[in-house]
Amino acid sequence: MKVSMTEEQYITALTNNPHGIRNIPNPTEAMQLTCVAQNGMLLQYIKEPTEKVIETALSQSPRAIQFVEHPTEELLQALVKKDWAVLEYIDTPSDAVVQCALNQSGWAIRYIANPSEALQLEAVKSNYDALQYIKEPSEAVQLQAVKENYLALRYIDEPSVAVLEAAVKQDSQAMRQITKLTKDLALHLFGVSAATLGYIPNNLGVTVDEIKSIIISAISSDTADEDYIRELINNQAIGGRQSKWHIDLLSLIDAYGTRAVKKIAVSEYLKY
């Protein structure tokens, strides 16, 4: 004779083994709640769950959204605000849901199918390393990423000269991330950021005269970049006895510098 279990007995059993819900036909709401409160992913084994059961399951495991039929926009937005990674489990999310996820983290771009350039830009502005999740990012997206952090170069296979310029302007240490640094490229980047000089390796064969030539060009220009000049003057790789490049910068400024450059030089040297 088969003895039927009471609801209380089922609940006791499910408390010990919530996975048992898959073997119970027509479980009551109380039984369902007992299970999903322990493991929200068990929602997948419950047919036509009540709103309370769905709410409890999602509270325990937001990823259980993948087992909710026809979730409301309000529910989806609330979930991604709580955990942006839930976007992975939402089919055809609305623009608003996508935006909610990106507001939490730029990494959410990895779960957006065919994101527009505008969304890609937003992602890398938020998290520069979101670039690693973007297939074939445009130069504009690459530029934005390296402007946020030069380490974004790690995720760019063939960075353009413009991207490298932006990277060294963001931080001269970007030179360490350039895998195909040639002599010509090193000299060009020194003309963009004076601080890169300390990162030019000896094996490239860059000469003192070549560095001098770039310095003279910079200090004699009527459109000299003030930041570049200050960077040049404060560069410890130039001038001192222990410096790598024995160049008398003051003499060069005196001989070739414009009035504006000389004014900047006086201002900088008076600091010491």
Task: Report what the structure shows.
The protein folds into three domains: 1-69, no CATH class; 70-171, no CATH class; 181-272, no CATH class. The chain has 13 helices and no strands. The chain has helices at 7-16, 29-36, 51-60, 73-82, 95-104, 117-126, 139-148, 161-170, 183-192, 208-219, 226-233, 249-256, 259-269. Helix 6 runs parallel beside helix 7.
Please tell me the total number of domains: 3
Overall shape: it is: rod-shaped
Number of helices: 13
Low-confidence stretches: none
Organism: Veillonella dispar ATCC 17748
Protein name: DUF4116 domain-containing protein
List keywords for this structure.
mainly alpha; rod-shaped; 272 residues
In short:
The protein is rod-shaped. It is mainly alpha-helical and 272 residues long.
List the helices and strands and how they pair.
Layout: H1 7-16, H2 29-36, H3 51-60, H4 73-82, H5 95-104, H6 117-126, H7 139-148, H8 161-170, H9 183-192, H10 208-219, H11 226-233, H12 249-256, H13 259-269
Helix pairs in contact: 1-2, 2-3, 4-5, 6-7, 7-8, 11-13
